[in-house]
Amino acid sequence: MLNPQIPEALPSLQLGRVSTFRPEDIKRWGVERFMAEVAPQTPFAIPDLGFTPEEQQRMDQLTQDEREADGL
């Protein structure tokens, strides 16, 4: 039986692997505590995916068109 005075440890995240958590576990740990432990604390860099400038421009245009169609 868990001691309510000692918080249960959250499973550690492993770099490069998908981590999944069940809603009942997050509720048990507490949403604020869960987010404080697993959410990135600083912005993370998106790696260069190797798109050409033309491909990137086309994707940016498609994204903008979708946002305008959705009213955002």
> What is the assembly state of the chains in this entry?
single chain
With helices defined by DSSP (H or I, 4 residues minimum), what is the helix count? 3
Strand composition percent: under 5%
Backbone structural class: mainly alpha
Low-confidence stretches: none
- Outline: elongated
The secondary-structure element order is HHH
Largest sheet geometry:
none
Could you report the average pLDDT, rounded to the nearest whole number? 85
End-to-end CA span: 49 Å
DSSP strand count: 0
SSE blueprint:
Elements: H1 23-29, H2 31-38, H3 53-70
List the keywords.
72 residues; mainly alpha; 46% helix
Structure, described:
The chain has 72 residues and is mainly alpha-helical. The protein contains 3 helices and no strands. It has helices spanning 23-29, 31-38, 53-70. The N and C termini lie far apart (49 Å).
Structure described in brief:
The chain is mostly helical and 72 residues long.
